[in-house]
Amino acid sequence: MKITTLFIFLTSTLAAAASPTPTTAPSPSFTYNATHFLLNGAPYQILGGQMDPQRIPPPYHRDRLRKARAMGLNTIFTYTFWNLLEPGRGTWDAGEADSISSFIRIAQEEGLNVVLRPGPYVCGEREWGGFPAWLASVPGLVVRSNNAPFLSAAENYLENLARELEGLHVRDGGPILMVQVENEYGSYGDDHGYTSAIKGLLQNAFGEDKVLYTNDGTEQWTLEGGSVPGVLAEVDGDPRAGFAALRKYITDASMKGPLLDGEYYTWTFDSWGYNRSSAPAAAFVSDIEYVLGNESAGLSLYMVHGGTNFGFGNGALWQGKTRAFTTSYDYGSPIDEAGRTTPLYHTLRDTLLKYAGGSVPDVPEDIPLSEIPAFDLDPAVPLFDTLDGRNAVQSENPLTMEDLGQAYGFTLYSHTHTSPSSVSGLLSPGDRARDRVLIYINSVFAGVIDSTYAYPQNLTVTLEKGDTLDLLVENLGRVDYYSRGTDFPNEILDPWKGVVGNVTLGNTRLHPWTHHPIPLAQLPHLEIAAYHTSINSTQPLFLTGSFTLDTPDPDPARLDTYLEIQGGVKGNVWVNGFHLGRYWSRGPQQSLYLPGTVLKEGANEVVVLELEPSRGRGGMKGVGIKDRLWEVRGDGDCAGCM
Ligand SMILES: *[C@@H]1O[C@H](CO)[C@@H](O)[C@H](O)[C@H]1NC(C)=O
Ligand SMILES: *[C@@H]1O[C@H](CO)[C@@H](O)[C@H](O)[C@H]1NC(C)=O
Ligand SMILES: *[C@@H]1O[C@H](CO)[C@@H](O)[C@H](O)[C@H]1NC(C)=O
Ligand SMILES: *[C@@H]1O[C@H](CO)[C@@H](O)[C@H](O)[C@H]1NC(C)=O
Ligand SMILES: *[C@@H]1O[C@H](CO)[C@@H](O)[C@H](O)[C@H]1NC(C)=O
Ligand SMILES: *[C@@H]1O[C@H](CO)[C@@H](O)[C@H](O)[C@H]1NC(C)=O
Description:
Blueprint: H1 6-18, E1 30-32, E2 37-39, E3 42-44, E4 47-50, H2 61-70, E5 75-79, H3 82-85, H4 94-109, E6 113-117, H5 148-164, E7 176-180, H6 185-188, H7 192-206, E8 211-216, H8 220-226, E9 232-235, H9 239-249, E10 260-265, H10 281-294, E11 298-302, E12 316-318, E13 322-324, H11 343-356, E14 372-382, E15 393-395, E16 410-416, E17 423-429, E18 436-441, E19 444-450, E20 460-463, E21 468-474, E22 479-481, E23 503-505, E24 508-509, E25 513-518, E26 541-549, E27 561-566, E28 570-575, E29 578-584, E30 592-594, E31 602-610, E32 620-625
Parallel strand pairs: 4-5, 4-11, 5-6, 6-7, 7-8, 8-9, 10-11, 12-22
Antiparallel strand pairs: 1-2, 2-3, 12-13, 14-26, 14-32, 15-25, 16-21, 16-25, 17-20, 17-23, 18-19, 18-21, 23-24, 26-31, 27-30, 27-32, 28-29, 28-31
Helix pairs in contact: 5-7, 10-11
C-alpha cells in the first residue's frame, strides 16, 4: 500500500509548530502500531537519510538539510558524538551542543523530522565510536557494558544532551520523532542487562513516552543480541534479508512494529591505502522501490550526506592491522563532501519522489567550487623545537597516551642510552605500533613502524652510549567497531594509544623514558625560528603559508575548495587556526575539503605539520582545486609492507 497522506500530516506538524494554539491539528504525537508509524495519529512513512551535524560546518547545516528535503526525504537521522560534546570529564561544550539543537530546529524549518541516535556508542567510523578518550582513565570503567562507572558517565552525557534538546520533541511541537538505543549492539554483545539499562537512561532523559528503537545487523545472533524487550526492533543493511530476519527472529510482540531499514548504505567509507569502487545506483533504486513500494516500509539512506571528519575525528578498524578512516567522510553519498548534489542524488530523487507525496521543493542550485592559486609553504620551525620541557613526564616504563591524560595527536617517547656497552636488535615499540611510529636516532629520521600493515618494517637499531632514541607515535584514530562475529579478537574497542607495554631492542628492554604529549588541540606559538631559511630537517616540521582573498562574498559556499598539499608526505593542516584534518600522499584522499566558512577577506593563514619533510619532493605548496584529487599511491615509507 502506497501511503499518499504523508505530506498533509507533515504540514500539520509544521503548522502546529508555528502557531502556539493550533485549532484543527490533533495534539502532537509520534507512535506506531503493528504496521505503521503514526504521526499525529496518521500513517507516516519514513523517507529518511542520515547526516551528522558534527561533520558539517554549522553555517552549512541549512544548505545540506534543504538539499535532503529537495531529494524527497522527510526525516533526518543523526548521530551525536559524545567525545566532542564532553571533551573532558564534566566539561560540557555548550557551543557544540548548540550547533546540534540549532541543526534540529533548522531541519524542522526545512520541512524535515528528526530521528536521534545519541549512542552513547555510535560507531560511525568515528574516533572510538564517539566515546571520549577520558573514559579509558576512569577506574573500573568498561564501555558498552552493564558497568556502574560506564552507565554513570553515559547517564550524565544523555541528561546533558536531553537538556539541550528540550522542546524539540514531537510532543512539544518539535521534529524529534524517536530515539535509537545504543547502536548495532548485537554485533558486539548480548548482555540484555546493559541494553535495558541504556533504555532506562534514555527514558529518563527523553521521557517515558518517547518511541525508542534498536538497529541491528540482519543475522539471527545480531538481532537476538541487540533487541530489547519493550523497544521496537529494526535492522540495517540489505533490506530484503533484513526484513525477512526481523519477521523470523523477532518474536516478542513488545519488539514488533513497522519495518524500517535504519541504515540503507548509499555506499561506503574510505580508509587510507584502500580503493573503493563506484556505487551501483541501479541496485539502490531497486532496493528503495522494494522498501518503499513493495513493503510500504521506511528507510534511512546512510549517508545522504557524509561530510568530513575534521581534525582528529576519524576512527579505525582493527583487522589484524589498523585500517584508519580518511578525513573525508564523503561516503560516495548523494550529497558530496562539499555539499554539492551528485548524479546519484538525482537518480535516487527520481525514485523517492514517487513516494514523497505532496510538494517537494526544487533542488537548490549547486555553486561551483573555487580555486586558490598555488602558494608556498615555508619551513617555520621543527616540531621538536616547539616542545615545552615543563610538560615532559618521566617514568621507568612507557606510559600510554591515556595514562598521560592525552586524547588525540602524537606523543614523543625519548630514551637515552647511558650504559657503556652498546645495545642492538630489532626494535619493538611495545605490544605493537599504536599506530604509526616515526623513529629518530640522535634526531635523525631512521624509519617508520606502521600498524596499518600486518607486517610493518623490521628495523634493527644500535644504540651506543649517549645515543638518543625518539619514537614519535601518532594516534591514527581509535577503533570504533568490533564485532564478536569477526576473526580479529582481543581488540574489543581497545582505547590505548602511544606505547603499550615495553620497548625492546632484541631482548633488551629500554628504560627509562621521557614523554612529551603533543595533542595539538591548539597550535604552538609558531615563532618562526631564526634559522628557518636553513632548515633542511629530517624531523617533523611546521610550515606556514598564506593566500589573499580580496573579493568578499556574502555566500561562503562560493569560496569552498579542496586544498591539496603538494610535495607533502603525511601531516595535518590548519587554516586560520581551524584543523582541517590529516593528509597522506598514500591516498586515496589527496586533497582536503576547505569550507569557505573558515576563510576570510584579506590574508588567510595556513599551517602545515609535515611529518617527513625530507621525503617530500622539495618545496611544498598549497593549492585550492575545484575537483577533489583522489587516488591511491604507493607508500614510500614501506614499499614492501603488506
Ligand atoms: C495501523 O494504522 C494504520 C493507519 O491508521 C491502519 O491502516 C492499520 O490498519 C493499523 N494497523 C493495525 C494492525 O492496527
Ligand atoms: C586502485 O585503483 C587504481 C585504478 O583502478 C589502480 O591503478 C591501483 O592499482 C589500485 N590500487 C590499489 C592499492 O588497489
Ligand atoms: C515489487 O512490486 C513490483 C510492482 O508492483 C512488482 O513488479 C515486483 O515483483 C515486486 N517485487 C517483490 C520482490 O515483491
Ligand atoms: C619482518 O619480519 C617478519 C618475520 O620474519 C616477516 O614476516 C615480515 O614480512 C618482515 N617485514 C617486512 C616489511 O619485510
Ligand atoms: C615492562 O617491564 C617491566 C620490567 O621487566 C615489567 O615489570 C612490566 O610488567 C613490563 N610491562 C609490560 C606491560 O609488560
Ligand atoms: C636537504 O637534504 C637532502 C637529503 O638530506 C638533500 O638531498 C638536499 O640537497 C638538501 N637540500 C638543501 C636545500 O640543502
